[in-house]
């Protein structure tokens, strides 16, 4: 099953002082196991463009749609047997300690 994992910042990071996992090791392990299909960091929220259509009119604005302290900073497309495996993959990601990871299954349309 495919999952989109949103990598987000968080205003309350972990206070554990042990060394964080290395992102390059995490990527290599999950790429090698075929669990990570794609992924990337994102440009800062200030570079975002929001697109909406209301009453047939195109509305384009600079920046993110919502003002929030937590932002999506990257993503990973995962292929895992089930949600339990996706959670274990997320658990080992460095941002699980300093941010938050949101996992959503992809659906076939």
Automatic annotation (TrEMBL):
Which stretches make up the YCII-related domain? 47-108
**Gene3D superfamilies the record matches:** Dimeric alpha+beta barrel
User: Mind telling me what this protein is named?
Assistant: YCII-related domain-containing protein
Q: Which family does it belong to?
A: Belongs to the YciI family.
Q: Name one Pfam family in it.
A: YCII
Q: Which domain of life is it from?
A: Bacteria
What InterPro entries does this protein map onto?
Answer: Dimeric_a/b-barrel, YCII
Q: Which SUPFAM superfamilies match?
A: Dimeric alpha+beta barrel
Species name for this entry? Nonomuraea endophytica
